[in-house]
Design a protein that fits this description.
This protein is α+β, with helices and mostly antiparallel strands and 70 residues long. Helix content is 14%, strand content 30%. It has one helix and four strands; from the N terminus they run βββαβ. It binds zinc ion. Zinc ion (ZN) binds next to loops.
Amino acid sequence: MNKFYYVNTNAQNTGEHEVHAEGCNHMPSISNREYLGYFDSCKDALREARNKGYDKVDGCFYCANECHIK
Ligand SMILES: [Zn+2]
């Protein structure tokens, strides 16, 4: 299912930028997120985040669990 994905522009304490799908309860505030695109898979969203220069990215535990590492 395609969803809109966003990356948190603020890194976590461990250095990763979390990627979230639309509707997530843990979505960063509008000033702390960057729109990535409309993707079929969180894996594509993480790839796009890397393309945008976020070297360390991680899927959100709640909304992108299959891409969640830490
Ligand atoms: Zn999330």
